[in-house]
Structures are given as structure tokens and as C-alpha cells.
């Protein structure tokens, strides 16, 4: 059974870069008939809020993701505490008393000696008396995980065979001085407890994977399969960041973008699957294989999003638009099918619908008034269909000798007030004869 998780920290609003792993995990679960867990990594009590967590759930739902299970790390502290105790008892988690300033000096000294600036493990040589003395001075320990210091091999779903040598890394701090946990330990503990089989995340976590595999093994847990995808960057090649205030998913929603357009751009940029319209996320899941994910950066193009958003609307069936149209006081499948090809944002339909419902501001040049008065007199009787426009304009051409732009543009401007828009042969039956008579001089 495939079990994946997406584990955001509710410390801000999620952006396109966050949506990428959320969607890729969803696609993998759907493709393999698996379970999708939304795990709120909310152990950062100072910055995590319920408001941000609720916002993440809303954003996922808007994108079309419905988790099978929601868990919060803050509810699972007993499991994390038990794992900490086991690692201490096994000698894999050890207390350290250096201040940040002391650690900075050690790193600077190592660089001067052309040595890697990794932790020297001096705390391992502390005796019980040394620790008691340091604590009597008011120092509180942080706790480091003692790495094996070996090449850790794993087969990456996306990148293929990988090796991380933990001998070149500092023993990571898993528990802060105040007893709170950093990301790593709760993540591994929860992955074991929840039966996570696949961890799919950004390639910036590759080096973390060696450490985490050692923690999985130290706790006797099954090591999941890892997959590290390329990162999504903005148009300037910079990574998206909550800290830097990157445009959030809720910002895109408020600006009127379609959730499918955002989902496609967030997930398929930087893959060989085309950036084109798809009816559902399941269609993408069935087509996207991780072999299609590029090993290079995936650069987001706002202009491509605008183009895609329009194409998504142009392909949207009436059934998918009806409720939103009704909320705007608009009805009618024929009107939607006629006008949707002119939309860039869904809200544009309110202005375009005026071509059918009115009111419009007719535009007419003085030299066209006599021609338009004749056109009004020659307006065919109802019923109207898509042949009415050609019957009317053929008759006007014969009567006036006008043709091409001189024939068609004055009629378009008088009937719609615009140079652009849908074909008048399709628009005319929806407008109706009475409204056309009212718009012509």
C-alpha cells in the first residue's frame, strides 16, 4: 500500500513552490491507489498558527486536493518524547553545551586550518561531573544525533542512485535547549508511525536524507523510498519563499486565476509533460511519470500562466461554470459557450455578457448613420439562427455596395460597442431582434 505525506509548516501562506510537492505527492498517491496524508509540521510553536494551518487546508481544497488523513505534529509529542528517550538510551543522542558564539568560533578555527567546519564531537568526552558543572552554571543542553559517518546509499525515484556521506556532516541537533524539537526527529518518528512508504519533496532535502535514513535505522523503522524533484523558481530564477513574501496561492485565487491553471503551472513546469489544459488532476496523475521530471531548475513564467488560464477557461464546459455564473446572476449554456473564448479571467464574463443582456454603448461614426438606418430597416424578421447574419449582410451588400470592413465593422460597433468579440452570426440570435433594433440608430 502506497502512503505519502505532504508536511508543510503552518508558519505562513503557501506559495507555488510549496504547491509543487503537495501536488506531486497527490499525483503519486492517485496513480498508485494510495493514501495521501496532510501532516502539519507545527512544532515551531513561536511561528505556527491555526490560522495558517486552516489557510493551507483551504488552498489545498481549492487546488483539488482532499487529504485522506490530517494529522498535527503538535498532537504527537508523546511519540517524539519516547523516540528521544530510546535514542539517548542507545547512545545515539547526546547532550551538548556550547553556546552559538562558541560554535561560531570553532567553525572559524576549522576554516583557518583548512578543515571542514563540522562539529568536533567534544561533548562526547564530557563526564557526568563536567555536565553537572555546566548545568550548575545555568547552561542547558541541546541534543545531537551521533551519525555513523558513512556513505548512505539510496535509490531516488527521480534522481536515480544517490549517495550521501554523513562523515562530512555535523551531528545534527534534534532537540533545542528549551526541549523543543527541530524538524528532523518528529518527521522521522511520524513517518514511521504513519507507515509512510514514499517521501516526495524538493531536491534541497537530498543531503538531509542521509541523516534521516540513519535515524530511521536507529529507531528500527522501515526506510521509505525517497524522491527529490527539481525546485520551482520565479521568473528571475529565485526560489519561492514565505519569508521573502512570495506570491501565495491565496493571492492567485484572489486575482481570479483558475485552480487548474495554478495546479498545472506548479506541478508540470520543469517536466516533459506539456503545459496544456487538463480536465482533472487525475488525468495529470495518470500521465505524469517521475521520469518526466527534469533535473534542471523549473522556472515559472507569469505570461505562460496568463495564457494557460485563458485556455483553461476556453475549455471549461458549461457544467463547470454554471454555479459560478448563477452566483453572478447569469444563466444560459449558449451564452457561456459563445463568450468563454474571449475570457482571460472568469470575472471577465460579467462585461462580455453585456453583449447579450445589455446595456451597451453603441459606437457609430457620422458617415455610417445612413447605412445603419438602412440596416435597421432591413433587419430580418424572427425567428433567428446562425444563418440570419449572412442573410442580413448579403442583403445590405447588394443594397449599398459595401463589403469587407466597411460593411461589417459599423454593424459590430453599433451592436456591441467593441471592435473585438464573438462572431456576430452566433451572437445575433442570443441578442434578439428587439435588442438589435434598440441598438441601431
Automatic annotation (TrEMBL):
Where is the major localization of this protein? cytoplasm
InterPro entries linked: aa-tRNA-synth_I_cd-bd, aa-tRNA-synth_I_codon-bd_sub2, aa-tRNA-synth_I_CS, aa_tRNA-synth_I_cd-bd_sf, Glu-tRNA-ligase_bac/mito, Glu/Gln-tRNA-synth, Glu/Gln-tRNA-synth_Ib_cat-dom, GluQ/Sye
One cellular component term from this protein's GO annotations in UniProt: cytoplasm
- Residue stretches making up the Glutamyl/glutaminyl-tRNA synthetase class Ib catalytic domain: 3-306
Q: Which residues bind ATP?
A: 242
Q: Where is this motif: 'KMSKS' region?
A: 239-243
- Motif 'HIGH' region extends across 8-18
Q: Where is the Aminoacyl-tRNA synthetase class I anticodon-binding domain?
A: 336-440
Q: Which reaction does it catalyse?
A: tRNA(Glu) + L-glutamate + ATP = L-glutamyl-tRNA(Glu) + AMP + diphosphate
Query: Keyword annotations for this protein?
Result: Aminoacyl-tRNA synthetase, ATP-binding, Cytoplasm, Ligase, Nucleotide-binding, Protein biosynthesis
Q: Which GO terms describe its molecular function?
A: ATP binding; glutamate-tRNA ligase activity; tRNA binding
Tell me the domain of life. Answer: Bacteria
| Gene Ontology biological process terms from the UniProt entry | glutamyl-tRNA aminoacylation
Q: Where in the cell is it found?
A: Cytoplasm
Q: EC number(s) for this protein? A: 6.1.1.17
Concerning PANTHER family, the annotation shows: GLUTAMATE--TRNA LIGASE, GLUTAMATE--TRNA LIGASE, MITOCHONDRIAL-RELATED
Q: How does it assemble?
A: Monomer.
Q: What does this protein do?
A: Catalyzes the attachment of glutamate to tRNA(Glu) in a two-step reaction: glutamate is first activated by ATP to form Glu-AMP and then transferred to the acceptor end of tRNA(Glu).
Please give the family membership noted in the entry: Belongs to the class-I aminoacyl-tRNA synthetase family. Glutamate--tRNA ligase type 1 subfamily.
Name it.
Glutamate--tRNA ligase
Instruction: Please name the taxonomic classification of the source.
Output: Bacteria, Pseudomonadati, Pseudomonadota, Alphaproteobacteria, Hyphomicrobiales
